[in-house]
């Protein structure tokens, strides 16, 4: 993990530390993937996930968030990765993703998957790559808005 990037920050999976209002605000107002996500839906997603908070070490102020949907055995989906605008450009996104990958490694997962429109470079630094055989993957869009416009 890039300990230098975390200088002055810490990562925790303690759900009690999450600033639920702030995380919902970030995701529902400043993400391209979940704008206007209702709070009740967001809270259900958080409750059913392994949550990672990124915090300023001294103040405890939350500076980032990510969640993982997983069975802790075979599969995990990384989603809702967000770094506060004031804390961007310090390598914190990459450090958070590295910490998540390190945390999940002992589970022996077959894969940790994600979807991104514009942050491929961040994830590639940690070892993520495009699907080797995308023709083998399918999705059932129960509520599928289609492709995100670029």
Account of the 3D structure:
With 150 residues, the protein is α+β, with helices and mostly antiparallel strands. It has four helices and five strands, in the order βααβββαβα. The chain has a five-stranded mixed β-sheet. The relative contact order is 0.16.
Secondary structure blueprint with pairings:
Elements: E1 9-12, H1 20-30, H2 39-47, E2 50-56, E3 62-70, E4 75-83, H3 92-104, E5 111-113, H4 120-124
Parallel strand pairs: 4-5
Antiparallel strand pairs: 1-2, 2-3, 3-4
Keywords:
150 residues, alpha+beta, five-stranded mixed β-sheet, 4 helices, 5 strands, 21% strand
What is the terminal-to-terminal distance?
A: 31 Å
Secondary-structure-derived class: alpha+beta
The number of helical runs is 4
Total number of strands: 5
H/E element sequence: EHHEEEHEH
Mean pLDDT over the residues: 91
Work out the strand percent.
Answer: 15-25%
User: Could you give the order of strands across the largest sheet?
Assistant: 1-2-3-4-5
What is the multimeric organization of the chains shown? single chain
Helical fraction:
25-40%
What would the principal axes of the Cα set say about the shape?
A: globular
Uncertain stretches: none
**Radius of gyration (Å):** 15 Å
Q: Main beta sheet: strand number and arrangement? A: 5 strands, mixed
